[in-house]
Automatic annotation (TrEMBL), chain A:
<dbReference type="GO" id="GO:0016192">
    <property type="term" value="P:vesicle-mediated transport"/>
</dbReference>
<comment type="similarity">
    <text>Belongs to the Rab GDI family.</text>
</comment>
<dbReference type="GO" id="GO:0015031">
    <property type="term" value="P:protein transport"/>
</dbReference>
<keyword id="KW-0963">Cytoplasm</keyword>
<dbReference type="GO" id="GO:0005096">
    <property type="term" value="F:GTPase activator activity"/>
</dbReference>
<keyword id="KW-0343">GTPase activation</keyword>
<protein>
    <recommendedName>
        <fullName>Rab GDP dissociation inhibitor</fullName>
    </recommendedName>
</protein>
<dbReference type="GO" id="GO:0005737">
    <property type="term" value="C:cytoplasm"/>
</dbReference>
<dbReference type="InterPro" id="IPR000806">
    <property type="entry name" value="RabGDI"/>
</dbReference>
Automatic annotation (TrEMBL), chain B:
<dbReference type="InterPro" id="IPR027417">
    <property type="entry name" value="P-loop_NTPase"/>
</dbReference>
<dbReference type="GO" id="GO:0003924">
    <property type="term" value="F:GTPase activity"/>
</dbReference>
<keyword id="KW-0547">Nucleotide-binding</keyword>
<dbReference type="GO" id="GO:0005525">
    <property type="term" value="F:GTP binding"/>
</dbReference>
<keyword id="KW-0342">GTP-binding</keyword>
<protein>
    <submittedName>
        <fullName>Ras-related protein Rab-30</fullName>
    </submittedName>
</protein>
<dbReference type="InterPro" id="IPR005225">
    <property type="entry name" value="Small_GTP-bd"/>
</dbReference>
<dbReference type="InterPro" id="IPR050227">
    <property type="entry name" value="Rab"/>
</dbReference>
<dbReference type="InterPro" id="IPR001806">
    <property type="entry name" value="Small_GTPase"/>
</dbReference>
C-alpha cells in the first residue's frame, strides 16, 4: 500500500467501480480500496439468502426458500434502459462481455387502483384501457409527433419551439387530459415529480424517445436486468480497472484521508500505512464531514412465491405509481425480478417497493405498492439517507459521488459518474482510449 | 451467408499469485513466453478464444485470466460465473502454491458449480530431482476431493511442454460432457449479451 498513486478510489459501489475503470483506462495509476470483504458496497447483491436475513436481524430462512446460495438479492432496485447511458458505457468499455442480460417482461403504470400496461406505440395506445376513445386518438397523435421529432430539423417541430416552450404547452397543444399527462411524464419520461412541466419540452421529448428506442431494442419492455443480479455490474468494471493496471484491496479500513498543502488531498491512511495520491474518488460513507443529507429513500425488499397479479404472470416487471394517483409529491416504484435471473431459488420472486420519503411514517407511504404484491412471505424495510457532496471537489481534489436515488434505472447514476470524471480529469471521457484487442479479437 | 455458431466454452485459470497463470494464457493465446524480468504482473490480459477440433467436432475454448486481482484482493465472484471448466494451477517448485489449492477449489465449486475442474502443475522445467510436490501428494489431493478433478497435467510455459496437450484434453472432456448434457440445456438458463449491433439478439416482434 505504501506507494504513490494518481488516484485512490474508496468503496467498490457501482459508481466508484465505473470511475476506477475509466481512470485506469485513461492511463492513471489507481488504487481501489474497500473496507468490506466483498465487492459492490451498497450495489452488491447479497448471497446467500441467510446473509440477507441476518443483515436485517431476522431468524434464518426455512427450507421452503430452497438453497441459500441460489439467491442474489439486490439492496438497491434498478433496471438498465436498453438504449441508456449505462448500456453505452458497458459497450464502449467492453464490460458487456462479462455479463449476460434478460429483458424485463413488462412495464406497467398505476391508475385508479389498478395497473395497466404502459402504452408506447400507436397500436398499444389505441388498445390501452388507460384512456377513453377520443383521448386515445389525441395520445396517438402526440406519440407520432414525438416519434418524428428531430432535434436538428425544425420542420418536425410543427410550429412549436421545444427549446423555449414548456412541456405543459406541448400537452395543451395536443389537448391531452391530466391523467394522460400523468402516465406520459412518469411512466414514459420517467420523471419523479411534476417539475418538468415548466421545463423546455425538448427534455421530455428526448426522454420519451429514450424509452421507445430502448423498447425497440429488445422488445417487451425498455428495461434490461443482468443475470445473477446488479452486483455483477460493479464487478465487471472492477475487472476492467484491474486489467488496465488498477490495484485492488478489500477488507481494508480507511482511518484517515490525509490532507496536505493548501487543503489538497495527499493520501489515505489505513492503520500505520499511508498511500500517497493526487486525487481521491469515493462514496459519501468515506467522508461524512464532506457531505450533507438531502433526503431519505425507503426501500422494501419483499420475497414472494408467486408473480404479481394482472401482469400476465411476468417473471420480471416494473410498475410505476405516479405521485398524483396516490396524493404524493414523488412516485412509488415497484420492481420485480425472479428465479429466471438466477437471483432467487426456483419458483421465487423478489419485489422491491421504493420511494423518496415524504412523511414521518415512510412505511405507510409505500403501502399502495405493497398492496399490489398480494401475499408477501418475507419483508425487509430499509430507510437510507441520501447524501450529496458539499462541494465540487476541485479545491480538495476529493471527488464524492451522490448516494443512489429512488429512480429505478441508472440514468442519473451515469450522469453523476460522467460529471465526476470530468471534474476530476478536466476532460470528457474518451471512449477511443479503450483498446478492443484485449483478447477476443481475432 | 449463414455461419454455424461454434459453442464457446469459458475456461478460467485459478491459483496463487505467481504460479504462471498468465504465462499459460500467453502460451494459449500466441504461444509466447516472457521471462519474469520482462514483465510485471498481469496487465491487459482478459480472455482469448481458440478453436479445437475433437472427434470431428469444432469446439471453441475461451480462456480467461484473473486480471491480477488475486495479488492483494480476492477475485470477483463474477469471474467464475458461466464457466464450463476451471484449471487449478500450482507451481511444481512451490509447495505452498499446492497446499493453498483447496481454497481455490472451494471458490470454484461455490461460484461455478457446473464447471469441470482440472489440475495443472506448472514450471516443470524448474523441478529438480527432488520434487517439491510429489506425484503421491497430487494423487492424495485428488482423492481427498472425491475425484471431482477431471484431469491432471504437468506443464512448462518456458519450454511449452504439455500446454497444447492439456488444452486438447480439456477440449475433449468438454465435448464429451456436452454431448451428454445437450438435451438438458434449456434456453431459460441463459440471458444474452448486449452489443452495439442494432440487430436484436432475440426474435422480437417488429411492429
Amino acid at each position: 500500500m505504501d506507494e504513490e498513486y494518481d488516484a485512490i478510489v474508496l468503496g467498490t459501489g457501482l459508481k466508484e467501480c465505473i470511475l476506477s475503470g475509466m481512470l485506469s483506462v485513461s492511463g492513471k495509476k489507481v488504487l481501489h480500496v474497500d473496507r468490506n470483504k466483498y465487492y459492490g458496497g451498497e450495489s452488491a447483491s447479497i448471497c446467500p439468502l441467510e446473509e440477507l436475513f441476518s443483515k436485517f436481524g431476522a431468524p434464518p430462512p426455512d427450507e421452503s426458500y430452497g438453497r441459500g446460495r441460489d439467491w442474489n438479492v439486490d439492496l438497491i432496485p434498478k433496471f438498465l434502459m436498453a438504449n441508456g447511458l449505462l448500456v453505452k458505457l458497458l459497450i464502449h468499455t467492453g464490460v458487456t462481455r462479462y455479463l449476460e442480460f434478460k429483458s424485463v417482461e413488462g412495464s406497467y403504470v398505476y391508475k385508479g387502483g389498478k395497473i395497466s400496461k404502459v402504452p408506447v406505440d400507436q397500436k398499444e395506445a389505441l388498445a390501452s384501457d388507460l384512456m377513453g376513445m377520443f383521448e386515445k386518438r389525441r395520445f396517438r397523435n402526440f406519440l407520432i409527433y414525438v416519434q418524428d421529432f428531430s432535434d436538428a430539423d425544425p420542420k418536425t417541430w410543427k410550429d412549436f419551439d421545444p427549446n423555449t416552450q414548456n412541456m405543459q404547452a406541448l400537452y395543451d397543444k395536443f389537448g391531452l387530459e391530466k391523467s394522460t399527462q400523468d402516465f406520459t411524464g412518469h411512466a414514459l419520461a420517467l420523471y419523479r415529480n411534476d417539475d418538468y412541466l415548466n421545463d423546455p419540452a425538448v427534455n421530455t421529448i428526448k426522454r420519451i424517445k429514450l424509452y421507445s428506442d430502448s423498447l425497440a431494442r429488445y422488445g417487451k419492455s425498455p428495461y434490461l436486468y443482468p443475470m445473477y443480479g446488479l452486483g455483477e455490474l460493479p464487478q465487471g468494471f472492477a475487472r476492467l480497472s484491474a486489467i488496465y493496471g488498477g490495484t485492488y484491496m478489500l477488507d481494508k479500513p480507511i482511518d484517515e484521508i490525509v490532507i496536505g498543502e493548501g487543503g489538497k488531498v495527499a493520501g489515505v491512511r489505513s492503520g500505520t500505512e499511508v498511500a500517497k495520491c493526487k486525487q481521491v474518488y469515493c462514496d459519501p460513507s468515506y467522508v461524512p464531514d464532506r457531505v450533507r443529507k438531502s433526503g431519505q429513500v425507503i426501500r422494501c425488499i419483499c420475497l414472494l412465491d408467486h408473480p404479481i397479479a394482472n401482469t400476465k404472470d411476468a417473471l420480471s416487471t416494473q410498475i410505476i405509481i405516479p405521485q398524483k394517483q396516490v396524493g404524493r409529491n414523488s412516485d412509488i416504484y415497484v420492481s420485480l425480478v425472479s428465479y429466471t435471473h438466477q437471483v432467487a431459488a426456483k419458483g421465487w420472486f423478489i419485489a422491491m417497493v421504493s420511494t423518496t420519503v415524504e412523511t414521518e411514517n415512510p412505511e405507510n407511504e409505500i403501502k399502495p405498492g405493497l398492496d399490489l404484491l398480494g401475499s408477501i412471505r418475507q419483508k425487509f424495510v430499509s430507510i437510507s439517507d441520501y447524501y450529496v457532496p458539499t462541494d465540487n471537489g476541485l479545491d480538495s481534489q476529493i471527488f464524492i459521488s451522490e448516494s443512489f436515488d429512488a429512480t429505478t434505472h441508472f440514468e442519473t447514476t451515469c450522469l453523476d459518474v460522467l460529471d465526476i470524471f470530468k471534474r476530476g480529469t478536466g476532460e470528457e471521457f474518451d471512449f477511443s482510449k479503450i483498446k478492443h484487442e484485449l483478447g477476443d479479437e481475432e | 451467408m449463414a455461419t454455424t455458431k461454434i459453442p464457446e466454452q469459458k475456461i478460467i485459470l485459478c491459483g496463487e499469485y505467481g504460479v504462471g497463470k498468465s504465462s499459460i494464457f500467453r502460451r494459449f493465446a500466441n504461444n509466447t513466453f516472457i521471462t519474469a524480468t520482462g514483465r510485471q504482473s498481469t496487465l491487459g490480459l482478459d480472455h482469448y478464444d481458440k478453436v479445437y477440433n475433437v472427434q470431428d467436432k469444432d469446439i471453441k475454448l475461451q480462456l480467461w485470466d484473473t486480471g491480477g486481482m488475486e495479488r492483494v484482493a480476492s477475485i470477483t465472484s463474477s469471474y467464475y460465473k458461466f464457466s464450463e471448466a476451471a484449471i487449478l494451477v500450482f507451481s511444481l517448485d512451490n509447495l505452498t502454491s499446492f497446499n493453498t489449492l483447496s481454497q481455490h477449489l472451494l471458490d470454484v465449486v461455490t461460484y461455478a458449480e457446473n464447471a469441470k475442474i482440472f489440475l495443472c502443475g506448472n514450471k516443470l522445467d524448474l523441478q529438480s530431482s527432488e520434487p517439491q510436490v510429489s506425484d503421491a501428494e497430487i494423487e492424495a489431493f485428488c482423492e481427498q476431493c472425491h475425484n471431482i478433478i477431471s484431469g491432471v497435467y504437468k506443464t512448462s510455459c518456458k519450454t511449452g511442454e504439455g500446454i497444447e496437450k492439456m488444452f486438447y484434453d480439456i477440449a475433449y472432456h468438454l465435448v464429451e460432457s456436452n454431448r451428454s448434457r445437450l438435451e438438458l440445456q434449456t434456453m431459460d438458463k441463459h440471458g444474452f449479451k448486449i452489443s452495439s449491433n442494432e440487430e436484436s439478439p432475440e426474435d422480437s416482434c417488429l411492429c
